[in-house]
Request: fold
Amino acid sequence: MHGSLKGIKIRLFFTCWLIFVLHFATDFSREHYLVLSIVDDFSFRLNKYVGLHNDIFMTRDYGAHHGANPGASMIAAVPYLVFKPFIAGVVNHVKEKRQSANEGAPVYTDDRPARAKFYKQVYEKGLDIKFGLVGFVTMVFCMAPLSALGAVVMFSTITYLGLSNRLSLGMSLLYALGTPVFFRTAYLNQNLMVGIFGFSAFSLLWQMKEKNRLEIWQRFGIAGFLGGLSLLCDYSGVIVLFMLGGYGLLRRMDSASIWESLKDSLWYVGGAIGPIALLWFYQWRSFGYPFYPPQHFMPLQTYSDVGYQGVTGPSAELFWMLLFNWQFGLFIASPILLLAFFSPILTYFKKNVVPLRETLFILAFFIVFILFFSGVQFTKLQWITGIRYVIPVVPFIFLLMTAVMVRLPRIVAFGLSILAFSESWVMSMLRRVDFPNEGIMSNIIRFFMEGFQLPWLNTLSRAATLYAPFLDERTISPFPFFLLWGVLIYGIWRIKLPWDSLGENNV
Reply:
């Protein structure tokens, strides 16, 4: 493949970013409310939004909050802060126009009553335009670039295994577009952030001997910071933080004494301190106690009356559901990932491109993560949003899947890749996973009945009476957008970059 590694990475990033942006979903998650409060009110309190989301609850002395860690909201607050003047200008203009026209509430045609009710509430509060723009900005300039960077990290990691640039690029695109990463990138999501940060830290520590750009202490420090960010985003990040800390220590001992390795590991601890301290500060300001998780203060709700706020010991039923439930199971949403578990066979025959220790670490990480969430009763509620909780394991086991894929006959690997991309794309277009009696595979049936779609176009058409009266749900076609994006992506790979004429080592 022509061009330097840097040029390939830049093209890969913008290709993934563009495709993710095209499939933006207008879902407004609980993390968005904290984004608004941080930027608009310089506060963690969500009092203005009580009643708009089931996870927002009132505390006795500290106002309203939600039951999730704040990391994703804090990160997404940055692009909102940048674009706030523009968003405020648009919102004010629309409000003035509505007051002068005395328009009534538009009809939002959706067969899901909860969504129609939410839209009515938001419109009556004058928040519909603001919520839409904030959701778009946080996805386009936070979630999408993070996932695109995750694809670049995957490319870097696969090339580190010694595979060709072309093969590494193909597998990285399959990771971004042929796994649930595609589906979950459509709007702000803290679980996917945990996976991106965790795998990036793993890649840094694994490539410890690559000193051309980062010294060992820098790799430990950045990895620790990423591990701390994982915890700041979600309490499942504690698995990332501690397991990667242990892995980094073992990896360093390949070329240093135990004492020297322990000293270098202190940089990992130092890197993690900042995000952890920020989490404690948030909990202290929000609830009055720095070391209790937000879930500790939630009132009783569905499943929270079991164990400690819905957290119990591992359950075989939940373990199975996380992997094979037809509505959100990992291997239903991405069957191709099952290939990862054939990698130990390759190791036995000394044909695995992933070394034994890394293979064992990834398998252990996978098991621990699934066991953790098999004790979280809220797992049963995933049918509302589709696969979510176990997303952090995807990049890890995808790497093992890659080791198997490269040993398969080319025609078989190509066929499996097409099937994986097709399922992932259909899920990302239709996004119909919010009926209890519907499974992931029902999206495929709907696709053959309803054809190609884009989530944001569907939402726009459902409220077209006000926002775009010239549109009609039966006539909106996504193909002009597909064509335009195809031209843009073609241009990305055809344009000559300054780095293309330069050789470059892997990072």
Remarks:
- The two ends are 18 Å apart (CA to CA).
- The beta strands are 56-59, 63-66.
